[in-house]
Amino acid sequence: MESIYPRRVPVMGNLTGNGWTVASQESVLSLIVVLGSSVSLVGLIFAFITYSLFSDLRTMSGTALMYMLANMFLTQLFYVVGVGGVQEDNLCLCLAFGIHYLRLAIISWLCVMTYDMLITFRNNVNLNPRPEPVNVLISRFVKYSLFAWGVPSLSVIAASVMRVTVNHQTIDNLNPYNCWFFEKTIYNVTFAVPALCCFAAIVDSLVRSWLTARATVGLQVTRRPG
Q: Which is a GO BP term held by this UniProt record (predicted)?
């Protein structure tokens, strides 16, 4: 995978007429990333506080959303740390592992939220909410957590193994990738494939939720004017 920063951009003349250098291009892009991430961090903090303060929002989906917001916050924070490049190779590698884990955890929790939405629609198909026993909710949340935290963990373990055994041209210094990504092969196998599977599951849950909602509306008795 190429660096997140472009190696070359079309020459744009500046006031001196010398054009932009690569260093100036990366400085501008770094500033944009830092500013954009800072705005995102503020929004994520307010969203997390909102769900923390109001108990009515802390449903199964609301709790999953809080975990996803926390992962998004850490991801944006790690982006800011790695945007300028990390000189220490071990720290850069740890940063890449952390971002890899967090990005996949975000997608996994989104998958959990859409599946839980489908379960909620099915359980309330008659528009009369049925409260579920606490033990059922706890059991379901444990399963959700095992999936949402387990998939990224297995992915990171697989990436570690591939760096040691499969990839014989391991790049120890990930600074060309801004410490954001692994090498192309490792990234495709350990991130792109699981992410695509999760996105397929998300689309499936959304479609089935829509069909359930549509069927629910069709079951309602239409009142005719007397």
A: cell surface receptor signaling pathway
Residues 6+ apart with CB under 8 A from 66: 48, 51, 52, 58
Q: Return the ∠ at Cα 109 (arms to 103 and 115), rounded to 5°.
A: 140
Q: What one-character-per-residue DSSP string does the chain give?
A: ---SS-S-------TTSS---HHHHHHHHHHHHHHHHHHHHHHHHHHHHHHHH-GGG-SHHHHHHHHHHHHHHHHHHHHHHHTT--S-HHHHHHHHHHHHHHHHHHHHHHHHHHHHHHHHHHHTTTS---PPPHHHHHHHHHHHHHHHHHHHHHHHHHHHHIIIII-TT--S--GGGTTT---HHHHIIIIIHHHHHHHHHHHHHHHHHHHHHHHHHHHSPPPPP-
Radius of gyration of the CA atoms of the chain, in A: 23
| Whether 124 contacts 171, CB under 8 Å | no
- Tell me: the pLDDT tens digits for 27-51? 676 677 778 778 888 888 888 898 8
Specify whether the CB–CB gap between 44 and 72 falls below 8 A.
yes
